[in-house]
Amino acid sequence: MLWDGTRWTELPKKMWDGNQWTAKPKFKVWDGAEWMTKYPDPVYYPSWVDANGGIKDGEFRTFRLPQGMRLGDFVVTVCVSRESMPQLLNPSGNLTATKQLASGTWVSAIMFRYDGEWGLRAGDSVRWRVPGGGISTIANYVYRGAETRNIPITPFYEVKEYANVSEVPLSSPAGNTTLFLALTEAKNLTNVQFPEGVTTHRPAIQGQFGQSQLLLHSGDMPGTGSGGFDKILFDTTVPAAAVITIKIPGDPTSPGVWVLGDPSASVLGKTTYLL
Questions:
Q1: Could you give the C-alpha distances from 206 to 54, 92, 268, in angstroms and in order?
Q2: Edge-to-edge strand ranges of the sheet holding 135-144
Q3: Other Cβ atoms closer than 10 A to 129
Q4: CA atoms within 13 Å, Cβ hemisphere of 11
Q5: How far apart, in whole angstroms, are the C-alpha atoms of residue 38 and residue 64?
Q6: How many CB atoms lie within 10 A of CB 248?
Q7: How far apart are CA 144 and CA 41, in angstroms?
Q8: From CA 113, how far away is CA 98, in angstroms rounded?
Q9: pLDDT tens digits for 114-134?
């Protein structure tokens, strides 16, 4: 204790950081690839890492996150159910966005930063509960370099629904990196084609509902407000389809890169610089 002239105060505690005694040591944690003292800095266009998902039956749905997760990765988790509204169990404390489509299907989603296994009560698994039971579909989408200090309240930037269609218009990119989910319900759909400029991901994640399959097709692209965007094409007419637009937040302070066909976000000399 130290007398400061008025009262006894506690001396600041110092710790050895490997080189010197310091009052604010930098602790390093293993992020899955290297030792880090802080979360990675966000970038303007967060990059796609991986996705997984599958069909689950019963009241509780648990699905492990993809391999190769690193500290600070940005996760979008989606649960689709026909029977009843999905409820998030793990990771707890996150705001869940839920929408019931005209077809009766429930879609719930959350966004969260991956803080390591200690951040998920059931290990590195995402856990949902569907009170009505039955079969549902789970999907986890992972991005790296996202701005996670201001995660949006709702993952759904825009949801548009269609009935008895063989093609649907794709909304303009929402800014930074945009994740597009095409949710289709059909008996014999075998191929989905995203427009040029959208990087499509692995084959659709699907679940079986009666005689129909409910599939989640995904793709993403950088940019904001591109005009005259194209359509998603199906190889058959589907009774019900929905296009879900999700914005992956990026660093708002850094200048972006040039994106052809994006007159809103990539204006040479204003938002974009050539080096």
A1: 7, 25, 42
A2: 47-57, 135-144, 74-81, 106-113, 97-100
A3: 18
A4: 6
A5: 24
A6: 27
A7: 10
A8: 19
A9: 887 666 655 568 889 998 787
